[in-house]
Design goal:
The protein is α+β, with helices and mostly antiparallel strands. The protein has a domain of 28 residues. It is built from 1 helix and 2 strands, in the order ββα. A hairpin with a 6-residue loop joins strand 1 and strand 2. The protein is elongated. The mean pLDDT is 86.
Length: 51
């Protein structure tokens, strides 16, 4: 990925959280498993397990 300038996240991929439908932007820590990321937070993951 080519970075235009520091802080510009408009070029990063994004997806919606399956629990709260909030938009999540790609993070370096998710690089290896981006395709399997479903939730924006641990709280959403737990909430989804209960429902």
């Amino acid at each position: 990925m080519k970075q235009e300038h520091k802080g510009n996240k408009s070029y990063l991929p994004s997806k919606l959280c399956v629990a709260c439908h909030k938009e999540m932007t790609w993070r370096k820590s998710w690089e290896k498993n981006w395709e399997s990321i479903k939730y924006c937070s641990e709280a959403c993951r737990r909430k989804s397990k209960i429902s």
